[in-house]
Design goal:
291 residues; alpha/beta; TIM Barrel; 12% strand
Length: 291
């Protein structure tokens, strides 16, 4: 797994093809896609046409959580629906296996109360969906399996029944959220789970792109504000996903590995409290775990 992945969220098939082709050309080694991005045909074709050996490309994809889209609307068939979706990932990508597949969200039934406890009736859904993931992994169709937007209560749901530990939890994470947002990163670290960041430049404003703090720190390294923000995640040991259709921006993304933050610069970024963010919009800030 790379420390930085090229994402394709909100791209159509043609845009996904173009962006993945450019990303592989400039040196990206990981691609992040999803079944519910509806563009995996473009991703798979770009990989095939790139000329880059398959073992040099880390492919990460996702399947929807129970009840999250028309493929999993029936909570009582989430296990079988997830098995179908996992196979659909491979079919659309045109690949015999993926390097990593993750569950995109906890079950939709959890969202009104922002918890995955048995009080919502969601634990059994989480367990049945994870069973499908484990079978896919054990069949050699994924080299690793994980989750996204999972709460601590989500983890507790599967802790007693899982036979394969989720490898990662992909969450919103960026400067302004501190070193341990809602206690999730420390929980991950304690259980050997990789924290992977989406929205590394925030979610809806330009603070981490053109803000004074990140741009001023970046000047000493010939970085933009965006590069500074992404470098902070790397130095905290957090791999990230980013996206752009511009090859020049892709080259800038990879350039963050050529230098490092000074201690005082990192401390300043560590202490930032803006922009605010939540690791998962499926989780509350203080969950009562009842399993």
């Amino acid at each position: 797994m790379s420390m930085i992945a090229a994402g394709v969220f909100q791209y159509n098939v043609s845009q996904a093809y173009s962006s993945v082709s450019a990303a592989l050309k400039v040196g990206f080694a990981q691609i992040d896609t999803a079944l519910d991005y509806h563009n995996q045909e473009g991703v798979g074709k770009a990989i095939k046409d790139s000329g880059v050996p398959r073992d040099q490309i880390f492919v990460e994809t996702k399947v929807p959580g129970c009840g999250m889209d028309k493929t999993t609307w029936n909570p009582f068939t989430c296990y079988t629906d997830t098995k179908k979706n996992l196979e659909m990932d491979l079919q659309l990508l045109g690949l015999p296996f993926v390097d990593l597949v993750i569950i995109h969200f906890p079950p939709s039934i959890t969202f009104p109360v922002r918890s995955c406890s048995n009080l919502t009736g969601s634990c059994e859904m989480i367990r049945s969906q994870w069973k499908a993931m484990e079978e896919f992994y054990k069949a050699g169709k994924a080299r690793a399996i994980g989750v996204s937007n999972y709460c601590v209560s989500s983890w507790e749901c599967i802790k007693e029944t899982q036979t394969v530990m989720p490898a990662i939890n992909q969450i919103e994470y960026h400067v302004g959220m501190g070193l341990d947002p809602q206690g999730l990163k420390s929980y991950h670290d304690a259980h050997g789970i990789v924290t992977q960041a989406y929205s590394p430049l925030g979610n809806g404003d330009s603070t981490l792109i053109t803000g004074d703090m990140v741009t001023n720190i970046g000047k000493a390294h010939n970085w933009s504000g965006a590069q500074t923000s992404m470098r902070w995640l790397i130095e905290n040991g957090v791999p990230l996903t980013t996206k752009t259709t511009k090859q020049s921006h892709m080259e800038e993304d990879l350039a963050i590995f050529a230098d490092a933050l000074a201690d005082e610069e990192k401390s300043q970024l560590d202490a930032a409290t803006q922009p605010a963010g939540k690791p998962s919009w499926a989780c509350s800030s203080a969950e009562e775990v009842v399993v």
